[in-house]
Design a protein that fits this description.
This protein is an alpha/beta fold. It contains five helices and six strands; from the N terminus they run ββααβββαβαα. The strands form two sheets. A four-stranded mixed β-sheet has the order 3-2-4-5, with helices on one face. A two-stranded parallel ribbon has the order 1-6. A hairpin with a 4-residue loop joins strand 4 and strand 5. The longest helix has 16 residues. This is Large ribosomal subunit protein mL43.
């Protein structure tokens, strides 16, 4: 068994504050693009800054964008989220299109979800006290002691009555009303 999970924060899969139920609030608060003006490894990030950064900033007015030129350093993108998480991502030798995709990933996630150990794979605000649903949850308890096969329990009574069946029943009722009384 590995002890690497002991150092990860644990949590549940969930949307922060029911985000998206009423309206969507972008969880990205701040993004810092650190790059070198002359280093070749920063070329993709410089292209992104020149071509797409103004559109990104205008489409996401709630996100604060900082540019931090650094001499002879590898390009880095640091994202800070509303829940306090910081995501650091190296952009060394990445192309303009790769950086565009990674920044979109950073914009749409809610923090450092990769460093969270999931306690459960589902989460609800109102957990059930009666346990999970199974196909036998609403079955008749008499089914436990009946001898199978049984016509009563084998019938499919979950489907709604068809129009043909309703007409047959109406016809039979009419026949009973019209039927002459034997003298």
């Amino acid at each position: 068994m590995s002890n690497s999970n002991l150092f990860l924060k644990s949590g549940f899969v969930r949307a922060p504050l029911q985000n998206g139920v009423g309206r969507y609030v972008c969880q990205l608060q701040r993004i810092v693009l650190k790059f070198c003006k002359s280093h070749g490894g920063s070329r993709g990030l410089r292209d992104y800054i020149e071509q797409d950064l103004v559109d990104f900033a205008s489409n996401n007015p709630s996100v604060v964008v900082y540019l931090k030129p650094r001499r002879h350093r590898s390009p880095v993108v640091v994202a800070e989220y509303l829940n306090g998480d910081r995501v650091w991502m190296s952009m060394h030798n990445k192309t303009h299109s790769e950086i565009t995709k990674w920044i979109e990933v950073i914009r749409t996630q809610q923090g450092d979800v990769s460093a969270t150990r999931l306690r459960k794979y589902q989460y609800t605000d109102y957990p059930s006290i009666q346990g999970p649903w199974t196909p036998f949850t609403y079955k008749d308890p008499k089914l436990n002691i009946v001898e199978l096969p049984n016509a009563e329990f084998g019938a499919n009574n979950r489907l709604p009555m068809t129009a043909t069946e309703q007409l047959k029943i109406m016809f039979e009722k009419k026949q009973l009303e019209i039927k002459p009384i034997d003298e």
